[in-house]
Amino acid sequence: MIFDPRLVFTRIPKILKYLPITMEIAIGATLISLIIGFIVALIKIRKVPVLHQITAFYVSFTRGTPILVQLYATYVGIPIILRLFNAHFGTSFSVNGIPPIVFALLALSLNDAAYSSEAIRAAIQAVDRGQIEAAHSIGMTTWQTLRRIIIPESLVIALPSLGNAFIGMIKGTSLVFVTAVVEMSTYGRQLAGRDFRYLEMYVTLAIIYWVITFVVSKLLNLWERKLKCDERAAGGGAGRDTAARLTEKV
Amino acid sequence: MIQLQGLRKRFDKHQVLKGIDFTAQFGEVLAIIGASGSGKSTLLRCIDFLETPDEGIITLAGRSFDAAKATKSDIAYMRRNTAMVFQNFNLFKYKTALENITEGMITVQKRPKAEAEKRARELLEKVGLGDRMDYYPSKLSGGQQQRVAIARSLALEPRAMLLDEPTSALDPEMIAEVLTVIKNVARERSRAMIIVSHEMNFVYEIADRVIFLDEGEVLENGTPLEVFGAPKTERARQFISRVNLSNNYVI
Asked: A76, B46, B56, B183: which has the highest count of C-beta atoms within 10 A?
């Protein structure tokens, strides 16, 4: 048989055993990227000297190079950097001590943060000036204003584009075979290697990814609608479009 | 008391405040009047450090500092001991009326949540919004939002309350309800109130002292009777002749 449709479905359970790894990478990398993205956004807004130029270079470089190249560079580069570090400082950190998932998380989150930093920056700047003045006038410090007013309000504005980024990230995890992490796609390829039923396997993987992203995007829609209800109750929501527009991948 | 000496503020080349001096005692209601662009709002915002003054000495309740060299602690001191009521209300839009009021008490003053909520309820009752505690700002009329904003500023027990054209953004039929609340607050006499307003009848009625500001300078400083009845400067005379004080106040 050239194409065995049954095989497409019988292999689903086996592949799904690796779903937790896939989601672990996607969620972990997204969370790390939010933190990095937030810091980069603040540096951009405050125009912190030196750091501002460094982050501008980082964003431009990351957005201008393929993710696959970045993954390879991380996987190959970090052991070399570590070796140089050891030689220079007389330490003895072992590359083998680093679990492969760290390379994957690092590369994916750094890549994602370059995009999400723009969405976060736009969202923070979309927060009404009057809200910030009101917070200051009741005596809040800069940090309190950020934590209590600016972050919650900008999260509502940035959610649609950050949600898209998360869906992109789920699909992006299929590239981490480069770093020797075995997740769904890598395992699928290994399975197919045994009987050369590659097409069936790729169809299986396509179905699984599609179902996951479908469910996730439905959940995100629900969450967004809930926030929109709150927002209708709360009014406003300007800047949302700007934030979404700015994160469209180049 | 709250005192300003030689307060100056410039935006680029435009000198907005050209050395402002005034004193307001706690319990006193001070009104600032003047044409648009005369620097009234900027003056108020400088006291709360929403704008940073360039020069001048600011004194509040015994603490005095040079505005040009204001430290973080000076700014925090001013912000914690004054409260601003904005023209556009500026309520926190993702917080209910109650949360708007408790926010400062909990985050800034570190008061226990239960105590803050109890106080917030009392204040909302006081401004006549006891039945609107769980409403978001967008579900409240402009007048109601401004009354919540007044309650929010009262919650912090400020030594000085700063009101920046509190009725200018309101529909005419809502002005009265806000003015009534402000009058009641003023009657308590427990804090200095500095009001920038275009409601001349209201100013005449509640202010102990009126300051007329023109192009960043204090031209008149006296009782309402003095400033409205017998302005010393030609500029003030022109301004006052143009605003219509209703008949019962004609002297």
From this structure: B46
Residue B136, SS3 per DSSP: coil
Structure tokens given for A81: 């950097």
ipTM of the complex: 0.90
User: Does B107 lie at the interface with A, CB-CB under 8 angstroms?
Assistant: yes
Structural domains of chain A in order of their starting residue, each with its CATH number: 20-183+238-245 (1.10.3720.10)
A226 touches chain B (CB under 8 A): no
Interchain proximity B49–A136, CB inside 8 Å: yes
- Which residues in chain A are contacts of B83 at CB distance < 8 A? 137-138
Strand partners, B209: B30
Whether residue A170 contacts residue A150, with contact meaning beta carbons closer than 8 Å, is answered with no
- Alpha-carbon Rg of chain B, whole angstroms? 18
**Sequence-ordered list of residues with C-beta below 8 angstroms from that of B162, at least 6 positions apart, any chain:** B44, B47, B48, B82, B83, B84, B85, B194
Count of CA atoms in the C-beta half-sphere (13 A) of B196: 23
**Residue in B with minimal Cα distance to A228:** B94
Q: Are A130 and B138 within 8 A, CB to CB? A: no
pLDDT digits (tens, 9 = 90+) for B181-226: 999 998 888 899 999 998 888 899 889 999 999 999 999 999 999 9
Q: Which of B46, B94, B136, B165 to mutate to test the interface with A (most CBs of A within 10 A)?
A: B94
Cβ atoms within 10 Å, residue A153: 25
pLDDT, tens digit, for every residue of B95-121?
999 999 999 999 999 999 999 999 999
> Residue B220: how many CB atoms within 10 A of its CB?
23
State how far the Cα of A108 lies from the Cα of A166, in Å rounded to an integer.
11
Per-window interface: A 78-137 vs B, CB < 8 A: 128, 130-131, 133-137
